[in-house]
Amino acid sequence: MIRLRIAPDAGADDLAPAVSALQKGGVVVFPTETFYGIAVDPRSAAAVRRVFDIKRRGADQPLPLIASDVDQVIDHVGKMTPLAVRLARLGWPGPLTLILPASPRLCDDVHLSTGRVAVRVPGDPLARLLAASAGHAITSTSANISGEPPASMPDAVVAAIGSRIDVLIDSGATPAGLPSTIVDATGDAPILVRAGVVPWERVLEFSK
């Protein structure tokens, strides 16, 4: 495992080993505005399978994604419905995850052949930079064994899954707290899937 100790204001060159690993089907752990997450190329079935194996994740749990910006979501993740556009305009970057119709560019294992995928543009600039440098959206499930607490410290990542990942982007402690709020934005009205950082009342305001 390569451990990259970098500052939150790191540049693209600092992330080169992580981007190289993603291009080769590798597994990268990176900080977000909540916890550390696991990144792989969501277009690669082999890479996605590694995430399920590392986390011991159930086959009924799809993987969420992050993107660098709305354009990357449109190009690589899925269709932005009118509702999703309104929610994204006010909730991104930030801890608001939207469920969208999935792009055929994604491997089926990411969304378990449901045709619907969860994505957000994170508030953490390093996470956005990683997706931008990769040139495509990346997975962003929590860096832990399923059922165990998510990791906000890099040493906790190492202890839990360090032997099974390729690169750890270590920028110290993440803010932790509540996870992102997940909203189904595939229809005309928002549907709360998981409560989180963004209050539901605010989501309803965003959706108008």
Overview of the molecule:
With 208 residues, the protein is α/β, with parallel strands linked by helices. It has a single domain (2-206), classed as DHBP synthase. The chain contains 8 helices and 11 strands. It has a 6-stranded mixed beta sheet, with helices on both faces. Strand 10 and strand 11 form a beta hairpin. The radius of gyration is 16 Å and the shape is globular. The protein starts with a strand and ends with a helix. The mean pLDDT is 93.
The fraction of residues assigned to DSSP E strands is 15-25%
Across the major sheet, the strand order is: 7-4-6-5-10-11
Please identify the structural class as seen in this structure: alpha/beta
CATH superfamily: DHBP synthase
- Globally, the shape reads globular
List its salient traits.
single chain; 208 residues; alpha/beta; DHBP synthase; 6-stranded mixed beta sheet; 5-stranded mixed beta sheet; 8 helices; 31% helix
Summary of the model, kept short:
The chain is an alpha/beta fold. The chain has helices at residues 16-23, 45-55, 70-76, 82-91, 108-111, 125-134, 154-161, 200-206, and strands at 2-5, 28-31, 36-39, 65-66, 96-101, 116-120, 138-139, 141-142, 167-170, 181-184, 191-194. Helix content is 31%, strand content 20%.
List the helices and strands and how they pair.
Layout: E1 2-5, H1 16-23, E2 28-31, E3 36-39, H2 45-55, E4 65-66, H3 70-76, H4 82-91, E5 96-101, H5 108-111, E6 116-120, H6 125-134, E7 138-139, E8 141-142, H7 154-161, E9 167-170, E10 181-184, E11 191-194, H8 200-206
Parallel strand pairs: 1-9, 2-9, 4-6, 5-10
Antiparallel strand pairs: 2-3, 3-8, 4-7, 5-6, 10-11
